[in-house]
Each structure stands twice: as C-alpha cells, then as structure tokens.
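Discussion board: Methods & Data

I've been asked by a reviewer to show the raw model output for two of the constructs in my manuscript, not just the figures. I'm not sure how much to include, so I'm pasting the format here to get opinions. Each protein appears as its amino acid sequence followed by a line of discrete structure tokens. Is this the kind of thing reviewers expect to see in a supplement, or should I convert it first? Here is construct A:
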Amino acid sequence: MKNQILHWPFLAIIMILFNAKIGFAQNVLLYKNSFETPLIPPVSTCSIDLDNNQVNTLWGGTGLGIGGGGNFQQLNTIETIIIQGTQYNDPSGLGANYCIGMLNNANLQNDKLALTLNAQMLPFLNLSFLLSPIDIPNCGGPFGLDTAEMNLKVYDTPGGIFSFASPGTILDEDTIFGNAPGLTPYTFNWLLCSTSLDISNSLDSTITIVFDLIKSGYAAIDSIEISSSENTSIQSLIQFKNINFFPNPSNGEINISMNEFKNEKIILTIIDSFGRKMNEFNITSENTSLKLGLPNGVYFAIIRTDDHTYTKKIIIER
C-alpha cells in the first residue's frame, strides 16, 4: 500500500489474544527490537564507536514477537553504532545506547538488511522504525549526508528460504523519507517512520523484508517494530487508538484524550523539529491538560506506553 507515510506516523498493535490452544489477532506483533540488549557488548572495531561484527553476532534472536524471526541476513557490512560513546550526540535520546548503521547504494557497496518472518496468515504488514542520517569517521567514511531515504521491499519467501542473489517475488514495496541531517555529521536527527505493505499474495505467509538505504551517504535505523494485520492501512490503526490532541494548533496549552490507555504507564516527551527534548510528562489520567511553555513552532509529542510508541505533530502559535 503506497502513500501511507505520515511525517510522524504511528504503529498500533491491538487486540492480541494468546492461549495454549488458540491464537487469534486482528493485529499481531511479529518483531520488535530497540537494540538495547545485545548478545555481547558492542565495542569499537573499525572506527571509534562503531562495531562492524555481523548483525546476528550482536543481535540475532534478541527481538520480541511471534513471527519466528530475529535472525537477519545482511549484504556487505552493517554496523552497530555505540550512541553513548565519545563520537555521537543524540539530543532527543530516542536512540538510547545502540542502533544499526548502513551505507547507501550510491557508494562502492550497497548494504542491505533482510528479516524473514511468518506473517501468521494476515494480509497486511505494518512497519515502524526510527531513521536518521548519520556519518562515520573511518571505515571508508565519512560518506557525506543528505535527507535519508530507505527503500523497503517485501518478498514472498515460501518455506523461509531467502537469498539476496535470488530474492524471489516482490509482494510490495515503498520508499520511506526521513529527516535532514542533524546539527553536525555525528548528531542524530531521528524520524519515526511507518508504512503498510500488502502481503496478501504470499503463498504460505512467510515473507522477507529488505531494508535498503537509497539516499544519504550513510544512515541509521533503530526501534524496528513489525506487525501483520487485517487492516489495509496505518491510518485505520491510528483512528482505532483514539488519541486526540486539541486544540491543534495550540496557544501553548494542549488537552490530550487517550481513552484506549486505561491503567497504563504513559510518558509524554515533547521534542522540537531538530529532535531536541523540550519537556517530559508522566500521564496519569485519560484526559490531561498541559501547559507546554514553548515558543511558537512545530513540535512532536512522543507517547510511550509499556509496549508501544505513538507520535503526534503539534503546532504552537499565538
């Protein structure tokens, strides 16, 4: 499904039911990884704060979800970036400690990352991940930066056998547009990106998603979340969650209604368009009024629950 990219989109996973004999879900979490619990601690190898060991050496099997995946295939070198080292700056804090970095196809090699999953016989695939341009000082770099663009292809993979040399039939694809570079080549400027892909023609519901950076010399991804669904678009999932910010635009005071989040621990973070954290609030009620105390401009409200992250653009104008 094309043209489902929102500037700050959402990914909602809802109505999951499991028991010993029966599992039914309108939306099923297949894979989720924030890349914070490595199998072994990442260390600087080919460059400062950059570990170029195989992705599976550090992250194989560390994701959550019932897609039967968690082990990647990679084409060429996919690095792990140590965000909290000495080289990088993440003013938003969204990347936390580690993320995955890759080179684009305009350079000498074209890095690709693939993940094979069982979509549980549901016809649509919903993906969400953080994307940021970022550079590396060595290992062939710096490569130069631009607004990040990531091409996503989903292939039919009967029996779970996939290879880059012969990937099989493309079921759907989309190109994700990220943010412009940060304030320096080594400053992250994350954008939460989402899309929905049609996998209804899969033979046995086993599919492979391939991440391929096509713009910006180098870029990073983090917090990958993948679900399968009966819904045809991300927009229908957004509407179901019933998260309302009003008024928007606002004069600096905003009301939030979150009827779907009863009895959950909720943290609301406000960041500016450069990814800098401006405010953070603990939400303890379904209906909340906040005085943001911010100047006129465009901001993003990031709502974190125990299981998911949702983002909403807000505008302040007086």
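Construct B, same format:
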Amino acid sequence: MKNKNFYSKTWNITTKKSGFTLAEVLITLGIIGVVAAMTMPVLVSNYRKNVVETRLKKFYSSMNQAIKMAEAEYGDKEGWQPKDTDDFWNNYLSKHLNYINVEENSSGSRKQKIVYFADGSAVKIDIYFSENDDGEVTMSTQGGHFLFCPEAKYCKEPYYAENGEKDKGKRIFTFGFWPNETNSNFKYHKNKGVEPYMVWWNGDEKVLYTSSTYGCNTSEASKKMYCAAIIQHNGWKIPKDYPFRF
C-alpha cells in the first residue's frame, strides 16, 4: 500500500499542468497595446522623416546629374535659352532623367510639367515666361521653380491647387534654377544647377528659419521657401529644430 500511494502521488505531481489565467492574458495584451499605442506614432513619424530625407537627397543628385549630362550636349547651362517649360524639358532634361511618367500642368498662363519617379516622388517644373495673345514668348528668365514632392500625390491637381501653399516645407519643397541670373539676390543660384531656393538669402543660417519673406518659420504659408535649404545645410538630414513634424 505504501508503494502504491507513493507512485500515485508521483504520477499526479509529474502530470500536473500550469498556464496563464484569462485575467493574466488580458492584462498582458493590455500592456502590449499601451506600449504599441505609445511607440507607433514615433515609428511612423521616423519612417516618414527618413523617406523625405532620402528622396530629397536623391532628387537633388539625380537632377543635377541630368543637367551635367545636358551640358555635355548643349554647352554651359549659363548659355541655355529655353523659352518655356516645354522647351526646357524636351531639349535639356527629358533624355537624361529616369522617370516613369510626365503630365502636362498649367498655372494661369504658365505651362508646367509634373514628372513622376520610380521611388514614388514627383517634381513640378515651372520655367518662368510670358507670352502674348498670339502665343509668342515676350519674356523669359531661362529658369524657374522646381517644386519637389517626396510623395507624388501632393504634386497632383486638384490637391496642389487647394493645399500646395500651406504644404511647403512639409510635403512640398521649393528648389530654384537660375544659372545665368545676374541679379545679386540670386547669387546662391548663379552658375549652379537645381538648388534649394535661396533667393535673397544673406548667408545667415538663422535667417533660413526667421526671414519674414521666405523663412521656414514664417507664418505666411505661401512663403516657406527656405525649408529645403535648411535640410541641405544639415547634410540632407532634418534637424531637431525643424519647424514641422512628419
């Protein structure tokens, strides 16, 4: 009898199973949910920030490489004389850029191009000119704005028409191209390719934030033109004091 009871007790001990109660499982899941809720916005923001940084840098490099290739064919960019956006795109850029699609666009009387890239970004090219009622070009600056969208959908209409100005510095970044402009206010674009917009900039890094005309911190949404320059001057990394979160 002693031996039988001993083996019986041993059997019961070795076959006893343990596990979590329902309450313990629910508490654990709740903790996981709270942690996820706290960390996900940060992870998403960091991802979006990285996308902006990576695509800005790639756009800058690709665009200026295309311009260098065009110079080998057409000569120094200071001597280029495109009459409008179509002329600039067709004769200088289109054959030297890798893109997946291009669309016609217009802003008032100006023709524009929206160029889409394989990484999901796009650029709105706007070479400044004026023409008369007969379609003859009466004024040309040989340059203009390149409005870069790390996410292409923000360059498209009607979104851009409704939100484009207030999205500058966050979803849309302003670049300029004026290699043969003689006005001293364009000195950071003279002899350059496509550069972050720096017209009227005095060289003071703080002014890129604080300028009431084009500073990234200005309260006037349509004038946040210096934002891309801030990121470029920080090695194409968005600084901690950047005015916008992603």
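Answer (T.O., handling editor elsewhere):
This is acceptable in a supplement if you add a one-line summary per construct. For B, something like: The chain has a mean pLDDT of 86.
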